[in-house]
Structure formats: C-alpha cells, structure tokens
Amino acid sequence: MTQGIKEQLSGKCVGIVGVGGLGSNCAAALVRAGVGKLTLVDFDMVSESNLNRQFYFADQMGMIKVEALYDNLKRIQPYVALSIHPLRLTPLNMSLLLADCDVVVEAMDAAEEKAWFIEEMFRQLPDIPLVAASGMAGYGHLETLRVVRQGNLTVCGDGATEVSEDMPPLAPRVGVVACMQADVVIEVLLRTL
To answer: Which of 7, 67, 123, 158 has a CA-to-CA distance to 51 between 20 and 30 Å?
Structure first.
C-alpha cells in the first residue's frame, strides 16, 4: 500500500452496525487496510455457534461482541481508534452513533432490521454512503455474488440466498461478502478524497 493511501484511510471513520459474521470480518479487513477509526454497534454476546464464521475465539465465548472485537482488532493494529457501543441500534439512537462516520456498513442479521435500518439511514443520514449485504448463506456458487449500486446504497451478495437448515451461513461465503463490503468501503473512501 502506498503511503498516500495509508494516510488518506487513517483519517477516515467507518460505522459497522452488527459485528457478527459480516461485521466482524469486515472490520478486520478494514483495519488491515488502514482505516483509522471504526464505530462498532452490536448488543449481542459471543456464543459457540458464532465461531464457525465470525472473527472471535473460543476463549471469548460469553463476552459482549463489540468488546471481544475491540481486543481482536487492537491485536491487528494497536493504534486504530475504536468506538464501541454494546447496545441495540434504534431509530432514536442511530443518528447520534453514526453521524460522524464517512461510510456505514449494514451487517445486521434479520431482514426486518435491515429494512428499517436502510430506510432510516436514507431518512436521517442521507449523505452517508451505506454498504449493505443480502444473500450470503450456504456454499459454492461464488459467481452469483455481486455488487449492486443505487445512489448512496451499495448491496453485496447474491440478493437471494436465505439462511436455512440446508443453507447455513458458513465462513467462506460470509467472509467473501464481508470482504466485498470492505472493498466497497475502501473504494468509497478513496473516491471521496
């Protein structure tokens, strides 16, 4: 990475809402790329079922995810600025938590949460680019993964594959989509300079 790009990214802030499979892996990729500040929002705790695809470790089970991720990201880059919020994001607190971000990553689990969050981002923070995800369950068929842009919204994934017993969220596809999100974030941050 050139020194110029590193300096440009070090001054940027990315918000990540949901630090499970998508959010935790996206955060790790962004820190490795040199993004200087992350705002992490999630109310959940690390459980054994998370370990197959999320950037957590067995000895972190029972920890609040944003606190465990804080530790893991600081091991990658001790100087990254991390603002952690162990709470559920709502329409009432989202502007307060995300208004200073240059880009926001949507990495929520439930479709209903994704829907209200995207709508509220357009309503409350319309000038902040949003990078969302849809359709990353299962395995194989990487050729179906794509990036779709519409105005200030970018969606990564296949847009269709829902989590089911036959199509669980597995590390390879979840990780690919998380890295697609991180790549779009870097593209947006460098384009806006």
So the answer is: 158
- Rounded CA gap, 161 and 45, in Å? 25
Q: How many whole angstroms separate alpha carbon 141 and alpha carbon 54?
A: 21
List pLDDT tens digits, range 146-191: 999 999 999 999 998 888 888 888 899 999 999 999 999 999 999 8
Residue where the block lists tokens 């357009």: 122
SS3 167: coil
Domains of the chain as residue ranges with CATH = 3-191 (3.40.50.720)
Q: Where are the alpha helices (DSSP H) in the chain?
A: 3-10, 21-33, 65-76, 94-98, 111-124, 171-191
Closest to 86 measured CA to CA, from 56, 42, 45, 50: 42
How far is 41 from 88, CA to CA, in rounded Å? 7
pLDDT at 36 over 60: yes
105-141: pLDDT as tens digits: 999 988 899 999 999 999 999 999 999 999 988 899 8
CA-CA distance, 82 to 22, in Å (whole number)? 17
Exposure string for 88-110, b = 16+ CB within 10 A, e = fewer? ebeeeebeebbeebbbbbbbbbe
